[in-house]
Specification:
With 594 residues, the chain is of the alpha/beta class. The chain is 54% helix and 17% strand. The strands form four sheets. An eight-stranded mixed barrel has the order 10-11-13-14-15-16-17-18, surrounded by six helices. A hairpin with a 5-residue loop joins β10 and β11.
Length: 594
Amino acid sequence: MGEPSGATTVAPTGTTVRHPSRPGTEIFARAWAKAVSGTSYLPMTLAQLEALLQRLTEQLATALLAEPIDLRVGHRVGTELVAAHIASAEGLGRTVEVVQLRLARDLGLVDEEVEDRLARLLAAVTTGYARALRDRTLDEQETIRRAAMTARAEAERALRSSEARFRHQATHDPLTDLPNRTLLTERLSAAIDSPTRGAARLGVCFLDLDRFKVVNDSHGHQVGDGLLVAMADRLRRSLDGHLVARLGGDEFVVLVEDTTGTDDVVAVAEAALAAVREPVLVDGHELSVSASIGIVEREVAGTSPGDLMRAADSTLHWAKAAGGARWALYDADRDRRDLARYALSAAIPTALERGEFYLDFQPLTSLRDGRVLGMEALVRWRHPELGVLRPDSFIGLAEETGLIVPLGGWVLAEACRQAESWAVGGGPAPFVSVNLAVRQVRRAALVQEVRALLRHTGLSPERLQLEITESTMMSTAEESVRTLRMLADLGVRIAIDDFGTGYCNLAYLRDLPVTELKVAGQFVAGLRAPEARADERILASLVSLAHALDLTVTAEGVETAGQAERLRAIGCDAGQGWHFGRPDSAERILARLR
């Protein structure tokens, strides 16, 4: 076979190798580079590609001329092509084409034996190329699989972390990082619903800071928030082992599980009060606060988170009402009474709409001649379930809730309506006396309301007497005093009820538009005993002072003829009580008088 010029050497393995001329390999390498350029993305310049392919050309030429032919070179060349990213089907096709058409010619090898050897070498290149491409594909698939597994694991970790973060945010207070109402309810439910709890007990301390609003109003909400954070940290540290939650505002709850009795929860409450009591420095302000705590301790059987929290909330209000800075223990009987009172107060508006209220009257009788001077209106409630209720069952509730305004307005209107029709023989008709609550006296529209009632009913102003308690009179603002003066200018009588039970300044009383004092029944009760001279002297002094101020005096709670006689003897003007007549409807009282 023809040979190119050049030296002949023997390979280390004993294979005879004839080195091809350098110019031929350079020409072929350029043609090869031109053929495969553009068949795939190649991360190299054209010069780098030509250098690579010239090296591979020399290896192919060496293998082609070796005796025997070394097909492993073809495998390596195929592998290197793939490694150099000449890894497309088109790139392989162009390589086979250019090697087959040009390699032998450019190297000056033109006999039939070379063609046969070249075909075998090309087959080896193709085989090496296919294997390398397969291995690369498998490696890439494995890399992708591992990357996917890693990405999924990272995503799962991120998801768990995100879920944990969101869970924490959903179950913890953002200001103090204490558990919030949601987590507290979950823990309560778990403690109650666990099937292994048996006869276990638990307790709840519902804590509220006393006068916290003063801190916010005096120093601002930033200082208030700082105080809440400090209190939360103290409670967390001092009550370690117990769940401390913040419900919002200045309200905290401590869950005490597996109690052995009330003493366990009381001890926790005492520790909480002590922790809160210590002064704290917030933004340069030294603050001292106290707390009130409602305590509930019971068996888990038969209760629920809602029942526990409602009971603890009610008990907290008992501690607040007792002055604060203390704890109060849940009392089921008291709670039932409170619930009944609440239900009763909630029913007042509906009762007004249904006409369940009505009036009884009690006469105010002259102690000089026995004539009925007036009648006091006393409201009654014909409750559909509880029967007839006296004022002491619901008036206090109405005053607490503000419902005394509509209820008192109804009493005033109904009393005026009934009084207009009263007549006793040929004498003057008695006046009607109506009690006013503090909220009614302080209403700016009271004068207009009374004027409209008198005009609507036709009742003359001097036949309406409005009774105000001594404590109400003393706490009445100047604007309310002007209202009373305007009522007096209309001709309406103004009386002070339960006189002697407060601390009325007589000099102040002199300047008020008052026409009558109604002396409290406590003083009159003492007149039942013949030797009760002290009460008699007190009453005599009150009557004398009232007469000096041109006021008439009515004694309340007169139950016996002896009391009436002694009151008459000291100059009291009128009496009211069972001795003169028990409360009844106006019709029956007037019928007896006629």
